[in-house]
Amino acid sequence: MAVYAAPVISSHGGWLGIVVVMHDITELIRLERVRKDFVANVSHELRTPVTSIKGFSETLLDGAVHDPKTAVQFLEIIHRESGRLEALIEDLLDLSRIEKEGFRLELTDVNVHGVLQQAVRIVSGRMKERGMQLFLHCPENLEVKADENRLVQIFVNLVVNAVAYSKPDTDIRITAEASGGMARISVEDHGIGIPEQELSRLFERFYRVDRARSRDSGGTGLGLAIVKHLVDLHGGTIGVESRLGEGSVFTVRIPLVRPME
Ligand code: ADP
């Protein structure tokens, strides 16, 4: 709480009283802490790949370049780490774009089945690499008021995570239906699951249950924060249920075009 007090004096110099202004700054302090944490996180996330790129390129310049086998190995690391930097910068720019005041979705009537098919197509290569199969159950006529590209982005992110945090050769199931004026779309995996105490923080920027696993899968730690913000912009909701060692279900609700469906 910040308190400001000032005496009130009449034009004749007489004492009239005191004006006291009390301002609740709890929220301001919280926001300032969030901002500082974010800057610290970004710096840390950027520093890790940069340190690696610098280190390996210096070793190459110091002579390792003359051993072709080592050179290829180091160049592969440099290539992978610059890809990580690129993904992080793209996610940061996208997050800042969609969080900016005045950002508007391009809302049209969008067919959910078509969106889910697009998302699945984009992730199908990764699924095949891991021997995973995806089952899609969605009525052909389900239509939502949405920004089509952003809706595809939401489900690409969720399916990429379902693939990254599952064991090879397991299944992913996407189920969509109309429910209470909304399209209810669930992405279910049989993966590593998420401990219950972590669920409430999952949509925070850079929050990860297992940092090493996220890095290995090429994650930036921003995917779910972007997904949550996009779902909010659509006037929808997102929730997650999970059992450690058994799998997770992420459920998105987006307003239907014709809510009576
Ligand atoms: P990342 O780039 O690390 O995947 P996200 O914001 O997409 O970042 O997800 C945040 C964290 O939530 C992940 O690091 C992971 O720990 C956890 N997570 C997300 N999706 C799943 C899932 N389907 N199964 C298990 N854990 C998940």
UniProtKB/TrEMBL annotation:
Keywords: ATP-binding, Kinase, Membrane, Nucleotide-binding, Phosphoprotein, Transferase, Transmembrane, Transmembrane helix, Two-component regulatory system. Residues 41-258 form the Histidine kinase domain. Coiled coil: none annotated. It is an enzyme of class 2 (transferase). It catalyses: ATP + protein L-histidine = ADP + protein N-phospho-L-histidine. GO terms for molecular function: protein histidine kinase activity. Its EC number is 2.7.13.3. It is found in: Membrane. This is histidine kinase. It comes from Bhargavaea ullalensis.
